[in-house]
Amino acid sequence: MGEFDVIIIGAGFAGMYMLHRLRDGLGLSARVLEAASGVGGTWHWNRYPGARCDSESYYYSYSFSEELQQEWEWTEKYAAQPEILRYLNYAADKFDLRRDIQLGTRVTSAIFDEDGNRWEIRTDGGERFFAQFLITAVGGLSAANVPDIKGLDTFEGEWCHTGEWPQEGVDFAGKRVGVVGTGSTGIQIIPKIAEEAGHLTVFQRTPNYSVPARNAPMDPAFQEQVKANYDEIRQKQRKTPAGHPWDVGKKSALEVSQDERQAMYEAAWERGSLRFRSTFSDLIINKEANDTASEFIRSKIREIVEDPTVAETLTPYDHPYATKRPPIDTDYFETYNRDNVSLVDVKSSPIQEITPKGIRTTDAEYELDVLVFATGYDALTGAYLRMDIRGKGGRSLKEKWEAGPRTYLGLQIAGFPNMFTIVGPGSPSILTNVPTSIEHHVEWVSDCIEYMREGGFERIEANVDAEDAWVERVNEAAGRTLLPMAQSSWFLGGNIPGKPRVFMPYAGGLPTYIQICDEVAAKGYEGFALTAQRSTARDGALKK
Ligand code: NA7
């Protein structure tokens, strides 16, 4: 219970930095409400075996504190979940954040009070909070999607979703385990479970492209070099389309000879990482160029997987490479060469039901002791819509976003004043190295609030026109890429039955996006309506 300047929802990368910035930077009173029992957001929940970051840790990390980035030592190229969680806990302690973070508290509703220009926030524990500003730091991939399959409640074994992994872990030793899903998460967990399980059955609906991660212990000399050059690395991140510290290849895949192209793909495969996507300048914008990369990865799958039938089932044809979020892996395709692993194609023989003993497809029943759903998230909007958020005139966000999310810059929603959405739909968010986008948003929002305080403004709201124009711009940016070709991707809401098919993140690249946001701010927050302080109205509201 209480009255604050700001309520922040979520204590992951975004919520923690937002708190630091507003409390320690601007001197505001702020409270973070977090559903989990600890800080860390996605890295608190995703404790499944094999969970690790797909971006290298030296740059998938906070840049705002020189001291933090100098003193923290990463032990691996791609840190595993426990290490990232330790890092976030370290940051929570270092910046003394815990005293303003309330754990175990799920926000159930947030209602805007138009007279008082403030939000009333309610929680699952029956608490009420009031704040001038509401900041959602809920993450784009936090609302777990457990598919609605008939009979799940009758299953006699143990089941879980990777995004809500049991704190005590899951024992796979010698058991018959089923994994549903072969996205980035399935691709991480499958090789790990295979090492422990008696037998692992993978239920694959859509095959996926994957490139080796080439994880390795952190090289001390490299770590030293990074620390000596952090300024430059961080600047570079904000200047590349996806927030990684590397340049996209300058050449088109179609302007080089076949031999040169093959050699470049081989080198990129050997180096590994998401950087494979940047081998050429046009893999995401030209289908013919993309075909060369897609075919290269297909040839690798055929080379690695010994059984040609299994290899063919694992080979993707339905979407161009990287039009869904491309996974990277450690021994994913190799895992299908193990005797204790089998693959079931549930596209050709769909899952009919879950029985007390396991999964029944149109072809057979597979008996299982443990069932793991690596089935992803109700991405980008799910975490918002699972709360009852109501703006002006009591209008719900659910109603407003009925045909898909509408935001201005992915930062605000017309009709929902004084609410900011960190890495919200309509911003580059999950198309980038997310902490880079988070830091940009947090800084933009805190600058905006500082501007309001200095200028005596009490309320800020995105204009409908500005929002409409931005939604159009988000669509245009996606339309200039091949991304909308992956119809079932979560970028488009295609993974959730009944979800509107709208391309949700801004695909115009981080530098362009940052420039647009800077210009909006420089023009006195163009596209937003700012309302001056009405001290009497506010006093009146507080007396209610
Ligand atoms: P994703 O990428 O959404 O992958 C989910 C997987 O689960 C994908 O293979 C889906 O197949 C499959 N799926 C979903 N529902 C079903 C049902 N009902 N039956 C069978 N298979 C199903 O989620 P991840 O957790 O792997 O990754 C999310 C992001 O987290 C990742 O991109 C990184 O950014 C971090 P489909 O392809 O839809 O046919």
From TrEMBL:
InterPro entries: FAD-binding_Monooxygenases, FAD/NAD-bd_sf. GO terms for molecular function: oxidoreductase activity, acting on paired donors, with incorporation or reduction of molecular oxygen, NAD(P)H as one donor, and incorporation of one atom of oxygen. The keyword NADP applies. Its cofactor is FAD. It holds the Pfam family Pyr_redox_3. Keywords: FAD, Flavoprotein, Monooxygenase, NADP, Oxidoreductase. Belongs to the FAD-binding monooxygenase family. This is SidA/IucD/PvdA family monooxygenase.
